[in-house]
Amino acid sequence: xxxxxxxxxxxxxxxxxxxxxxxxxxxxxxxxxxxxxxxxxxxxxxxxxxxxxxxxxxxxxxxxxxxxxxxxxxxxxxxxxxxxxxxxxxxxxxxxxxxxxxxxxxxxxxxxxxxxxxxxxxxxxxxxxxxxxxxxxxxxxxxxxxxxxxxxxxxxxxxxxxxxxxxxxxxxxxxxxxxxxxxxxxxxxxxxxxxxxxxxxxxxxxxxxxxxxxxxxxxxxxxxxxxxxxxxxxxxxxxxxxxxxxxxxxxxxxxxxxxxxxxxxxxxxxxxxxxxxxxxxxxxxxxxxxxxxxxxxxxxxxxxxxxxxxxxxxxxxxxxxxxxxxxxxxxxxxxxxxxxxxxxxxxxxxxxxxxxxxxxxxxxxxxxxxxxxxxxxxxxxxxxxxxxxxxxxxxxxxxxxxxxxxxxxxxxxxxxxxxxxxxxxxxxxxxxxxxxxxxxxxxxx
Length: 445
Prior knowledge:
The chain is mostly helical. The chain is built from 16 helices and 4 strands.
């Protein structure tokens, strides 16, 4: 789902027009560490240093030329492109360990077949001719795992590589500059990146996280000023203030009070106001070029759904008590006590599972609706230009490119207008369903 055009997937950089953020780096020293770590020359340099360290600590390590050829062959698979040697070795260890655990589980279940299962992990590795068995056996030893972490860190020392290795060719530097032009990398003071889309360790700051913090700050400032005016007795003035007041009054009168109740609804109005405005602005960010919508990320929508889930549980526990909240999940019914002992615990389990599922679906629903619009735009552009390219291949006139461009622009503009409506609609639906779920948690069934 990653797309540099539509920004459906989260990333650890912002993208702007290349003319505004050109990359004019002149040496490998000037490139960011995450980019250097993905360079094939660096990964071979790192692999050779790691091999030298493993020779001293692990028996049976193959010759460097043999390991190098094995590593390069493994990297030819598209799924393994850009991965260092330590990842290859750790993946082989994990695959062997998972297979060993599966064999042991099958043996305990009496489904291992005629062959007796391996007594130890080392026996399993030897019997199955596991790739890189010399490493897989050693990594299974707990005392080696801490040593392995130090070996990886020392082998991948970027400062040493920049100082000791020869500089990159002009052709490579120019190619990397073309790739990095227009990409504003986000500083990572609390973590380390594996690449521009995946974290390696620590707490990494992503593009959507920065956008969400900016949205939260803007909403805080705007509504703090609005609240200060109203608290001081000043009537709201100005189109923006009146527009915000319309939204907020509507959420209170048409969402919170009908769904939760006139008595309890006002207590949850601030949460629902915040939720609606935050989701709305996040949705609208998807219409801004080179920004992207944070609500097109599963982690964001799941976190929002969890807020609703936690609010409902805390509200229910506060009103009914811990035991009363769980008892309230069971529908009221008149049953003889022998039947009630059997049926009501089953109903409680079903209701609790359903409670979790409906909140999970709440997050997935918002995610799917926000991603769908981007995919439709991508499909329109892809079909239009793909059809024209195919027609030209069979001798169609070149002017069709211009016609295709016009059709794509008009269709994209129309779908963007539809997405503007969807941005408001999905914010409203998420807020309304949240109010319904909260209301169900704090009222008797």
